[in-house]
Amino acid sequence: MLWSLAVARNKTVQLFRHKNLPLLLRHRSFSTTGLYGIPHLKSPKGFQPFVDEAIQRSGELVNYISSKPSASELMRAMDEISDTVCSVVDSAELCRQTHPNREFVEEADKAAMKINEYLHYLNTSHDVYDALKKAEQECHMLSAEAQRGIKSLRVEMERGGIHLCPETLDRVNKLDIGISHLCREYNQNIVTDPGTVDIYPASRIPKNLHHLFKPIYKSEPLITKDISESKDTVKEKGFRITTDPRTLDSVLQLSSDDEILGCGSYAELAVKSNMASSPKVVMSFLHEMSKMVQAKSTEELNLLTKFKREKCGQNNGDLRPWDEAYYTTMMKSSVYKLDSLVAASYFSLSNCIEGLKVLVNSLFGVICHRIPLAPGESWDPQVLKLCLHHPEEGDLGYLYLDLYSRKGKYPGCAHFAIKGGRRISQTEYQLPIVALVCNFSGSRNPSAVRLNHSEVETLFHEFGHALHSLLSRTDYQHFSGTRTVLDFAEIPSNLFEYYAWDYRVLKTFARHYSTGDAIPEKLVESMLGAKNMFAATDLQRQIFYALADQTLHGEQPHPLGDVSSVLAELKRKHTNLEHIEGTHWEARFSHLLNYGAGYYSYLYAKCFAATIWKKVCKEDPLSPIAGNALRTKFLQHGGARDPAVILNDLVPDGIYRSYNGGIIPDISSLCEEMELMEENQKKVHLL
């Protein structure tokens, strides 16, 4: 989408204003405001005038752009349109996903539909497109960021087909509508029709499969014979749960028609603006990763098969696909004697929030402190608001924390932008505002909520995204924070996961909820050991998913509608586990459509993050020198610079290699970390 990320254009903050006043005085304000501090949103009905005003202001700016002003003024006007329209887009999205009041959600949904209709008009405006083409020819005297902005806006419009003849553009629009409807149906199927199996008693469901099952209560008497299931049968039934794959097949059929946009496949269209630049580069990267992980993954499979045979008293029993998660959990527990409840006793939610504060203070010299919310600003009593403040630069941005699960809330963990940063003048900067949303269960007292370590890792992951937005200092909202290509945007989040595993970091905040003792180093070593056990198998699975994503969205040498056989062949080539006929995991793997042809980005970014951790952060993870490098060479640029330039500036010695017009990350740091490389392979990658 050309216009994305929300910013309210009339809410600006002077860059150095009030920086010497006491913190509590500066943030003491009790006047009533609206949701997220947006005056219009004092009530659900406020969404209507909010969207109407955004459309009116944007229309005025489009009229101005139609007069073909100077390239500099055009870029400013374009960014203000993005700023204005996206204030509706992003606030509506956050409201739809998190607000407990159904009237707010419904009004936000209406606003989202109305603004999306207007977005279609903006993205197909020939007046805007012609002005952009003219400005691109005249912008050589502008800043590099402005030149990059004008070009990227023009390219984004062409991705939507603006440059095509009317008949072809109409066909593109109809395809988009069809794909949109099918994607909605696909995602709804995942939620409403996950498949059912009958299992009695429920106590026989292995814990690692609980998330697949929901209890069904029946009022009529249940008359049964002995229908108790063995654990093996339960695991197999859980594995075989599926949904109808036909909707996905239909989406892929429509998406394969992207030659009308000058691309050989949807994957080519989706990837060409990324760092990888083409499906060929992506596939080369994934095949390199697959080859590297194969030997270690086979070794892990043999180890797990042996463990199963010992537990079952068998001499030659094979490991079936539904056995893997069950025996993996059992073997980790057996080898490392790790009790997840013991580990969780050191990770109260309040301690983890303090850990985030320690991190930003140590790395960036930034104070992260809680400030009061104005009446009407919050959407739930448990929402917190933090301010990031630098003693010399003043306030840097604001972070809402919505961390507890509740009915109707977005089910996962995510970072939502509410406002993007942008420069208003030489002395004024619009500060970024973001929300970090999680679904931690238990008491609503943060001292009583204890997280398992995977939740801690997720919290740090999303905080990495939030910092990318909060520490960004781009001139234009169009490039603020995570507004960059997907295979680059995932790097900070992957990097900050490392901080959730490093004992030198954990000991600063992970304390026992009752004794106050710091987490023992031996416990952290056991946690790391359990994490790394079967890590190659986990990585191989992610490689397979990424290959499947690229293949299904790539050129179609296979018959459409034959998705399952294509995936079965990929699984045989790139994993060690058998394919089970009749299972359609792809029909409930939402990333295939929500991030079509982009799933590789997680692995791609993981390789970059491993190199940055090793060469910049690992020696002293809380070093302000490392923090300054991360902030000034990476985070503050958002999407305003070429990602390859940013990466090479941060780690100049071989963080990637050029290939076929794109770049491939150096995989050696990740492979060494996971002990995937033999000595001769290490030498090759060092050359």
Automatic annotation (TrEMBL):
<dbReference type="InterPro" id="IPR033851">
    <property type="entry name" value="M3A_MIP"/>
</dbReference>
<dbReference type="InterPro" id="IPR045090">
    <property type="entry name" value="Pept_M3A_M3B"/>
</dbReference>
<dbReference type="Pfam" id="PF01432">
    <property type="entry name" value="Peptidase_M3"/>
</dbReference>
<dbReference type="InterPro" id="IPR024077">
    <property type="entry name" value="Neurolysin/TOP_dom2"/>
</dbReference>
<dbReference type="InterPro" id="IPR024079">
    <property type="entry name" value="MetalloPept_cat_dom_sf"/>
</dbReference>
<dbReference type="GO" id="GO:0005739">
    <property type="term" value="C:mitochondrion"/>
</dbReference>
<dbReference type="GO" id="GO:0006508">
    <property type="term" value="P:proteolysis"/>
</dbReference>
<keyword id="KW-0645">Protease</keyword>
<comment type="similarity">
    <text>Belongs to the peptidase M3 family.</text>
</comment>
<keyword id="KW-0496">Mitochondrion</keyword>
<protein>
    <submittedName>
        <fullName>Intermediate peptidase</fullName>
    </submittedName>
</protein>
<feature type="domain" description="Peptidase M3A/M3B catalytic">
    <location>
        <begin position="259"/>
        <end position="649"/>
    </location>
</feature>
<dbReference type="GO" id="GO:0046872">
    <property type="term" value="F:metal ion binding"/>
</dbReference>
<keyword id="KW-0862">Zinc</keyword>
<keyword id="KW-0482">Metalloprotease</keyword>
<keyword id="KW-0479">Metal-binding</keyword>
<dbReference type="InterPro" id="IPR001567">
    <property type="entry name" value="Pept_M3A_M3B_dom"/>
</dbReference>
<keyword id="KW-0378">Hydrolase</keyword>
<dbReference type="GO" id="GO:0004222">
    <property type="term" value="F:metalloendopeptidase activity"/>
</dbReference>
<keyword id="KW-0809">Transit peptide</keyword>
